[in-house]
Amino acid sequence: MSSTASFATSARRRLAMPWPGLLGLAILLLWLLVAAFGPLLLGHDGADMGDADVFAPMSVHHWLGTDYLGRDMLARVFEGARYTVGIALLATLLASGIGTLLALLAVASTPWMDAALSRGIDTLTSIPSKLLALIMVAAFGSSLPMLIPTAALIYVPGAFRIARSLAVNINAMDYVTVARTRGERRLYIMLHEILPNIVSPMLADLGLRFVYVLLLLASLSFLGLGVQPPDADWGSLVRENIGALPSGGAAIVAPALAIASLTIAVNLLIDNLPGRSARGDH
To answer: Which residues form the ABC transmembrane type-1 domain (predicted)?
Structure first.
């Protein structure tokens, strides 16, 4: 076999994704589609009050039964996906973006700047995430504009520590030293020499961070401190339909399964990213 054919075969193997990863990707794309167009796909609003019984079982008219007010649970889950996925995604992007930027600044700057940023991040890390979330919500309220920066602030330290550990190794490479010697500015070194070499692992960390944020927001909503009525995310759907728990009604099972399916899908996708299995074979 020629070297070109061998290289092409190796590239295909690295880009190929095992079926668990494809399954995770399919579920993730499904929930993203539901979050973007859910109510339009159903043709009716989750807040519509029908004539169905409270906590009605699954039927042809109500595929996931009804909630504590007789509303269609499928529509409620679809509507909740908009808040659950949307808030978690925005908060995750904000946390990873800020954490990565601070890490690049710390590594590419002077030692005292690195020490100051690292100690400041350590201060945030020392506060338990749930406790910090409760403090922020108690101080500023649980409105949507506050939930996003609250969740982002909690997970900035984790993103910073991962990005910094990667950037420190890249910063010691010869080509970074050469760039610094030829007089390149700090911003150039951050964005052109270090950042491109940590993008891949940071994308994997982004997926994990999304799961953490998702579960944090669901926990806050279950405690009544997250998304407030009449809006609802999956965590608040579990809380408001807690009356269906003794009978195992779909009203409480459906949003719980939605949370589980999304978190499992993201983990399946991360664990089977193209190239990971190939790297593990060597």
So the answer is: 81-270
